[in-house]
Amino acid sequence: MASYYVALTVFGLAILGAVVLPRLLSDRPISFPLIFIGAGALVFTLPVGLTPPQPLENPQQTERLTELVVIIALMGAGLKLDRPFDWRAWAPTWRLLGIAMPLTIALTAILAWQYLGAHIAIAVLMGAVIAPTDPVLAADVQTGPPTEANDEEIDPTEQEGTIRFTLTSEAGLNDGLAFPFTYLAIALATAVGLETNVWIVDWFLVDVVYKIAMGGVVGYVLGKVLARFVFGRYGTTQLAQLMAGAEALAATLLAYGVTELFHGYGFIAVFVTALVLRHHEWDHPYYEELHDFAVIVERLLMAVVLLLFGGAIAGGLLAPLTLELVAVGVVVVLVVRPLSGLVSLIGFPATWRERAVISAFGIRGIGSFYYLAYALNQASFQQMELLIAADRVWALVGFIVLTSSVLHGITATPVMEAVDQWREENRADFDPQRHTEMD
Fold first, then answer.
1. 8-state DSSP, 90
2. What's the Cα-to-Cα distance from 349 to each of 92, 162, 292, 345, 423, rounded to whole Å?
3. What's the predicted TM-score (pTM) here?
């Protein structure tokens, strides 16, 4: 019983930290996710009666908790985007999704297969798990709240805001688009003895075409319906004002739940719903309420998950690491994603500085934990006895997320400040008014 009250105390402090730390660390080269991971490792090491979390032994709980954090983060990411949804304006996003993500999956799978000797199904799973950039931990490089003039110009030819917009929109969509590759890994684990043309056609038609389309359709329809409800009538009572913005959570759960009932990709549906809501009434101030409510819930849940991640590290999550696993993890973070991002942006009308930042900040995080827990919960992996390697896979993913959190958490603020300063200097150098006065 005492450990229960200790846990309440710890999580209460975590939530308090989620509120206070952003104020204290706003101008410092460290992100508060790092503090929560470190605090979790410390607390679960102390002799206070807390048992370190074991994601491998509690896969269902791990899957559901990380799932909830990701879908709420996707709603917040969608509500941030102030750029019109069209092919030209979203060109860098399509490049990252269509080129960088498959290339990241392929290179990671090859590393796992050739260098670590992983089964082909586990190798593909590793690629799929690592592919998504995280909408939860990438707040320092994302756009600001909606309706704010945060360098996201309406004109799609304007390059200001390219970095923040691209990283936010990519994180919003590739969490859902990585799912077909997760199912490909599951199919590979199940396909022993089956003809290739049978299972691969089924995978393409169902897991790629149908589920992506269903996520987009349900998200669009629900977004249209909910937009009329949210913006159709405004409450003036005190209770209505207190509940302002809670529709964001309702929209998240509805979009995800309905889509999953139709066997579509709920991650895609949530993000599309958020985009449709965002574009219903462009300048309406209520968007800030929706966005802020979603971000508050996301930040509180994130604090808890990162605390547990730190506790899992203290409990031996990284114990199975070998030099080979560490080497692969470092290569994935420092080489695979940056290289894939740069390749995808070849020919895109942005400076090399902008391309480099976009490519380097492919942050890995809670979404990777979700995909790994989801896949390893499937019977196909258990039937093939591939879970023998599950502790090593968890150790590798945990190491990659930790490395990404440390590296990107420390560098995000100074890098983005340097980019903003460079933009200001560049704007001043080419200011027509300034040149007119000089002439």
1. T
2. 9, 10, 33, 9, 15
3. 0.86
